[in-house]
């Protein structure tokens, strides 16, 4: 439509035709801003308190939610985290098919409680790679894995649909619970400060990973901080650069049992299938395909007086569609210096209570 209008204008005015290149610049800026806005917005309104401090102790999946990364990437982080902890077993790489392990089933049956935020998987400071000679405890030696509050719902959904590939499963409900629970955790905290805090952790993790020249230490570091590293929006090119330099990463759950050999391009192809011969390509393909496992409408939430919710990513990972629009109008009144922050926008609305 815009192109058609410009075409008519050009034929009517030589001046407009001469200014065409200059008109494209603001048009491109407007389209880019619109694209980014619709790409990110999927959280409900958050009672964010400017100056309320940083919300520490979020897991990588929860950090991905407040950073408003595509929900398909959030799902990827959740699955990788449970695979790494031994709660899931990878049965097939392409398309990804997993099974719930006996250990996870026992934890579900026992109703294992969620740990406090202080034991979050996102460290305040990125730890150095574990020195195997120091005798530090391995994940297995540290005891049974701990279930996060959102993991039981995903495990139950995965178990009920065990005969399907993940891309064909319905995971809307557990994802919706995660988004809402994460938004609730942010009440009374400063959303923007919290986002910057986790961005800095991601940046520090990559800085440390890239300075490790010893490949075994780098593998160990990436194993320990995999989900944090994957929070970086452009992690793919960095992993591919490592591939070019001779370091081909394989996640811990996909390596041969009892094999101490370093991953190679050949072993990576065996683990990741023919879709991609590298971890980066495989994981990016997964995230793209997982978009079809999440129904944008069901994941969305519309509440009276709330804000309009936008969509999650579709298969391309680049186009977001609107999920739902809220009904009613935002309430009046203020007080307490509290503002409502909605995902991907800087809207302000009245907050109930006005405090922590």
Task: Walk me through what this model shows.
The chain has a two-stranded antiparallel sheet. It has a two-stranded antiparallel ribbon with strand order 2-3. It contains 14 helices and four strands. It is mainly alpha-helical. It has a domain at 48-130 and 149-296. The protein is globular, with a radius of gyration of 23 Å. The termini are far apart. The chain has helices at 2-12, 14-18, 20-40, 60-66, 71-84, 102-110, 151-160, 172-185, 191-211, 215-230, 235-244, 265-272, 279-290, 296-299, and strands at 46-48, 88-92, 97-100, 339-341.
Count of helix runs: 14
Number of strands: 4
- Spatially, the strands of the biggest sheet line up as 1-4
| Helix content range | 40-55%
Give the oligomer, counting copies of the same chain as homo and different chains as hetero.
Answer: single chain
| Low-confidence residue ranges | 127-142, 257-271, 301-356
Q: Choose one word for the global shape.
A: globular
| Series of H and E elements | HHHEHHEEHHHHHHHHHE
Keywords:
mainly alpha, two-stranded antiparallel ribbon, two-stranded antiparallel sheet, 14 helices, 4% strand, disordered C terminus
Topology:
Layout: H1 2-12, H2 14-18, H3 20-40, E1 46-48, H4 60-66, H5 71-84, E2 88-92, E3 97-100, H6 102-110, H7 151-160, H8 172-185, H9 191-211, H10 215-230, H11 235-244, H12 265-272, H13 279-290, H14 296-299, E4 339-341
Antiparallel strand pairs: 1-4, 2-3
């Amino acid at each position: 439509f815009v192109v058609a209008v410009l075409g008519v204008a050009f034929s009517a005015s030589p001046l407009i035709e001469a200014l065409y290149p200059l008109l494209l610049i603001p048009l491109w800026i407007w389209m880019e801003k619109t694209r980014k806005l619709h790409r990110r917005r999927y959280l409900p309104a958050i009672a964010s308190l400017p100056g309320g401090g940083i919300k520490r102790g979020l897991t990588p999946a929860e950090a991905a939610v407040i950073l408003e990364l595509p929900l398909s990437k959030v799902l990827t982080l959740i699955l990788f985290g449970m695979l790494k902890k031994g709660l899931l077993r990878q049965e097939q790489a392409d398309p990804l098919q997993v099974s719930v392990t006996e250990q996870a089933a026992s934890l579900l049956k026992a109703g294992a409680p969620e740990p406090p935020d202080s034991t979050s998987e996102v460290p305040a400071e990125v730890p150095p790679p574990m020195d195997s000679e120091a005798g530090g405890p391995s994940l297995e030696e540290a005891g049974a894995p701990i279930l996060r509050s959102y993991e039981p719902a995903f495990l139950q959904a995965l178990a009920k649909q065990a005969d399907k590939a993940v891309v064909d499963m319905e995971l809307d409900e557990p994802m919706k619970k995660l988004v809402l629970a994460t938004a609730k955790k942010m009440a009374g905290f400063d959303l923007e400060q919290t986002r910057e805090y986790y961005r800095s952790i991601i940046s520090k993790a990559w800085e440390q990973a890239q300075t490790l020249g010893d490949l075994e230490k780098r593998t160990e570091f990436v194993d320990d901080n995999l989900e944090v590293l994957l929070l970086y929006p452009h992690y793919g090119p960095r992993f591919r650069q490592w591939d070019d330099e001779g370091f081909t990463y394989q996640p811990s759950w996909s390596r041969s049992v009892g094999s101490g050999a370093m991953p190679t391009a050949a072993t990576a192809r065996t683990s990741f299938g023919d879709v991609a011969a590298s971890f980066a390509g495989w994981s990016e393909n997964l995230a793209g395909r997982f978009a079809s496992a999440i129904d944008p409408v069901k994941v969305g939430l519309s509440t009276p007086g709330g804000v309009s919710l936008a969509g999650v990513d579709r298969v391309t990972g680049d186009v977001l569609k609107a999920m739902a629009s809220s009904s009613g109008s935002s309430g009046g009144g203020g007080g307490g210096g509290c503002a409502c922050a909605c995902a991907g926008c800087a809207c302000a609305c009245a907050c109930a209570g006005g405090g922590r």
